[in-house]
Amino acid sequence: MSLLAVEDLAIHFGGVKAVDGVSFEVEAGEVFAIIGPNGAGKSTIFNLISRLYEPTRGRIHFDGADITALKAHQIAPLGIARTFQNIELFDHSTVLDNLLMGRHIHRRTNFVQDILFLPKVRREEREHRRRVEEVIAFLELEHYRGKHIAGLPYGVRKVVEIGRALALGPKLILLDEPASGLSVEESQDVAFWIEDMRRDMGLTVLMVEHDMGLVTQVSDRVLAVANGRPLALGTAAEVQADPEVQAAYLGTGDAA
Ligand SMILES: Nc1ncnc2c1ncn2[C@@H]1O[C@H](COP(=O)(O)OP(=O)(O)OP(=O)(O)O)[C@@H](O)[C@H]1O
């Protein structure tokens, strides 16, 4: 059984059919990419899966459960973490604190226990820090641990956002354009991390990305969408060779 199944998903904003009948399944351990020209509906698909948007029709299943009617705050505890196209971090907090915030859904102590700093609280705190330090080591963020987000280069902030999603300890990570705005070297790092996430952490990755080099390097399967509609599904090479995909990209050259 697939880890994520999206069935006939649609959302219409007034007359705009942002997503209109998209179905796909992501297998556990797979790296699955969604590509498409600007305005194709890719981020909207992420917002539907994250339950930020209500679908006009369709169903979303995750790990055997129907999550279509869940609220956004119920998604992370199930094991779905995401990054955003426009980085959403706390600018005036440190890298460490931002990553620790990614752990808040696992907090099992209450306010009074926290104030008294009971042994249970200390144990939990140690566990959160241990997990966050693993993420810092994995993404090679040691140098930035105590630095405020606001003062960091764009490429590092993007990595911290991936880190915050990883700190949550998800089964599925949704990466919204992880390579956008990055240098060639930084994009290559992202490619290695995605491969390691799958191999070392057993993660399933669903990503939206324009950089076809990255998509080709890391994806098992690719879904191309345009105007909210699915165009082709297959390997990166198959999808890029599809005449409908090429026609959708005419003028942008993105998929070439
Ligand atoms: N909240 C909203 N209200 C109205 N229209 C929206 C909303 N969100 C998205 N849209 C519209 O839905 C369509 C798909 O947008 P979406 O951001 O999903 O595209 P995308 O494929 O992610 O594009 P890009 O690659 O440029 O990020 C666009 O026409 C967009 O204007």
Keywords:
alpha/beta; 9 helices; single chain; ABC transporter ATP-binding protein; 256 residues; Rossmann fold; binds adenosine-5'-triphosphate; 6-stranded mixed sheet; globular; 36% helix; 4-stranded antiparallel sheet
Report on this model:
The chain has 9 helices and 10 strands. It is globular. Helix 2 runs parallel beside helix 5 and helix 4 crosses helix 5. The chain has 2 domains: 166 residues, P-loop containing nucleotide triphosphate hydrolases (Rossmann fold, 3-Layer(aba) Sandwich), CATH 3.40.50.300; 82 residues, no CATH class. A 6-stranded mixed beta sheet has the order 6-7-8-3-9-10, sandwiched between helices. A 4-stranded antiparallel beta sheet has the order 2-1-4-5, with helices on one face. It starts with a strand and ends in a 7-residue tail after the last helix. By secondary structure, it is an alpha/beta fold. The mean pLDDT is 90. Bound molecules: adenosine-5'-triphosphate (ATP). The site of adenosine-5'-triphosphate has 12 residues, from strand 2 and helix 1. Adenosine-5'-triphosphate binds next to strand 2 and helix 1.
